[in-house]
From TrEMBL:
The keyword Lyase applies. One of its GO terms (molecular function) is S-adenosyl-L-methionine binding. Catalyzes the complex heterocyclic radical-mediated conversion of 6-carboxy-5,6,7,8-tetrahydropterin (CPH4) to 7-carboxy-7-deazaguanine (CDG), a step common to the biosynthetic pathways of all 7-deazapurine-containing compounds. Belongs to the radical SAM superfamily. 7-carboxy-7-deazaguanine synthase family. Substrate binds at I19, Q20, G21, R34, S85. Its cofactor is [4Fe-4S] cluster; Mg(2+); S-adenosyl-L-methionine. It comes from Ciceribacter lividus. SUPFAM superfamilies: Radical SAM enzymes. This is 7-carboxy-7-deazaguanine synthase. It catalyses: 6-carboxy-5,6,7,8-tetrahydropterin + H(+) = 7-carboxy-7-carbaguanine + NH4(+). One of its GO terms (biological process) is tRNA queuosine(34) biosynthetic process. It is an enzyme of class 4 (lyase). Keywords: 4Fe-4S, Iron, Iron-sulfur, Lyase, Magnesium, Metal-binding, Queuosine biosynthesis, S-adenosyl-L-methionine.
Length: 244
């Protein structure tokens, strides 16, 4: 089952327990492993400290065992859901970590934009695919997204999570969701006040609330009754702070 491995993962930060603030697992206690490096550069990315190469000196190459030691220390050795995020965690070799954790009763959720499919996606418990809408400035590769869904197969629960800033983003979410009718959909309002990468940003709660209300109206107006609309709970509680 679990064997020592030598996979090296580039880690930006490991923190928690906190609660998962977004999407299908919202409210669930979790420890985050945030990897460093991303193949995208979203205009409004809220985690630039794990994306831009000017921060790469803060990223640490860690063995699977070193990461696991931090996770189990933070969780007090009690199994919980580990959230793998980034950056794009699909860049890193995380299959060994998932194996190791499963052997001790932990569960794993991964957040990715769906640009890189990995065979080890099938080992996950939850796969959150967050295709990037027009406002991000990125172009969503629907073939790569479909490959991610295929790589996961029947292993994890796979869901779609869309960040929505405006009507164009909403239309994008509608179109992409229609291509994957079997996948549950989560919509969250975009936060246009991402933090200075090393600071504690204040958040525009009024703006977020306004976009959240607009999103609810849009979903109701289109009779999109299978979509879930949720805020980023951690942003409401702690603003743009890191490590929560
Ligand atoms: C920082 S990303 C890291 C994982 C992966 N690169 C991705 O984008 O899915 C984690 C989640 O935060 C969301 N996100 C990033 N910036 C955001 C913002 N300014 N407002 C709302 N959600 C945001 C992403 O869409 C994704 O669902
Ligand atoms: N509490 C909390 N929930 C989150 N959900 C997704 C996050 C992320 O940055 O990937 C995140 C995060 O950074 N903190
Ligand atoms: S894909 Fe995710 S981590 Fe990468 S730039 Fe976009 S929001 Fe940030
Ligand atoms: Mg975040």
């Amino acid at each position: 089952m679990t064997e020592a491995s030598s996979s090296t993962v580039l880690v930006s930060e490991i923190f928690g327990p906190t609660i998962q603030g977004e999407g299908v697992l919202i409210g669930l206690p979790t420890v985050f492993v945030r990897t460093g490096g991303c193949d995208y550069r979203c205009s409004w990315c809220d985690s630039l400290h794990a994306v831009e190469s000017r921060f790469r000196h803060d990223w640490k190459p860690m063995s699977t065992e070193e990461i696991w030691s931090d996770v189990t220390r933070l969780s007090g050795g009690k199994p919980l859901t580990v959230s793998l995020s980034g950056g794009n965690p699909a860049i890193q070799p995380l299959g060994d970590l998932i194996d190791l954790g499963h052997g001790e009763g932990y569960r794993f959720a991964l957040e990715t934009q769906g640009s890189l499919a990995r065979p080890w996606f099938s080992q996950l418990d939850t796969l959150v695919l967050s295709p990037k809408p027009p406002s991000s400035g990125m172009v969503c590769d629907l073939t790569a997204l479909a490959d991610c869904v295929g790589a996961a197969g029947e292993g994890p629960q796979t869901v779609l999570k869309f960040v929505v800033f405006d009507a164009e983003d909403f239309a994008f979410a509608r179109n992409v969701a229609a291509r994957f009718p079997a996948l549950p959909v989560y919509l969250q309002p975009g936060n246009h006040t991402p933090p200075p990468a090393d600071g504690e940003g204040n958040v525009d709660i009024d703006g977020l609330t306004e976009r959240m209300r607009w999103l609810v109206d849009a979903v109701a107006g289109e009779r999109w009754f299978s979509a879930h609309v949720l805020p980023q709970l951690h942003v409401m509680l702690w603003g743009n702070r890191r490590g929560v």
